[in-house]
Amino acid sequence: MYLIGLTGGIASGKSTIARRLAEQGAVHIDADRLAREVVEPGTEGLARIRSAFGDDVIAPDGTLDRAALGQRVFGHPEQLATLNAIVHPAVRALTRRLIAEAEQANPDAVVVYDVPLLVEAAVDHPFDLVVVAHADESVRRERLIRLRGFSEADAARRLGSQAADAERLAIADVVIDTDGSIEQTASQADALWERVVRGAP
């Protein structure tokens, strides 16, 4: 098995890269999706969030009210740390299980673990390669506003809550520049795949 850690700031193009690698044959594990799973109704994670933040972050249907929780934690480091202490260990445990299952199904699998908070969460899986999707902060801010409907203030708060670009770049084995078009990003992902399957990353 070959394990790639894929990270990058919000709106940096990680999903585009992960999708492209999955199309080439990689097993894609999405940390954001796992983070949602570990706080679904009935989970210990959601119970702990309710205990820490109160009923006002729980929607009427019993699911997590992400918008309400986001307002509480983004821009508030202590609150964010409390949330991360609940979610990150649960995601790590689920990830370990999924990686083991992928290896059992195919010992030669290439697994891409798409993890936005690789730096912030001190993710310690035994990566063979760490890939950083990198776009200038101004580009990411514009994407958040134009593509995701964020306000200027919300975009700034979300960008400010994540690791600095320098921290991510410091751990990179490979940097994929995502400032350009989707096609340019996909081309770099294809080149990475060729390097991995040739066994010479």
Automatic annotation (TrEMBL):
* Database matches in CDD domains: DPCK (cd02022)
Which domain of life does this protein belong to?
Bacteria
Q: Which residues bind ATP?
A: A11, S12, G13, K14, S15, T16
Is Nucleotide-binding among the key words of this record? yes
Check the record and name the PROSITE patterns matching this protein.
DPCK
Keyword terms, alphabetized: ATP-binding, Coenzyme A biosynthesis, Cytoplasm, Kinase, Nucleotide-binding, Transferase
**GO molecular function, a single term:** dephospho-CoA kinase activity
Which InterPro entries does this one have?
Depp_CoAkinase (IPR001977), P-loop_NTPase (IPR027417)
Record's keyword annotation contains Glycoprotein: no
What chemistry does it catalyse, as a reaction equation?
3'-dephospho-CoA + ATP = ADP + CoA + H(+)
Q: Which GO terms describe its cellular component?
A: cytoplasm
Biological processes per GO annotation: coenzyme A biosynthetic process
Q: Its annotated pathway? A: Cofactor biosynthesis; coenzyme A biosynthesis; CoA from (R)-pantothenate: step 5/5
Report the EC number(s), separated by commas if there are several: 2.7.1.24
Q: Which residues form a coiled coil?
A: none
User: Which family, according to UniProt?
Assistant: Belongs to the CoaE family.
**Functional summary from the UniProt entry:** Catalyzes the phosphorylation of the 3'-hydroxyl group of dephosphocoenzyme A to form coenzyme A.
Q: What is this protein's name?
A: Dephospho-CoA kinase
To which species is this protein native? Cryobacterium tepidiphilum
Gene name per UniProt? coaE
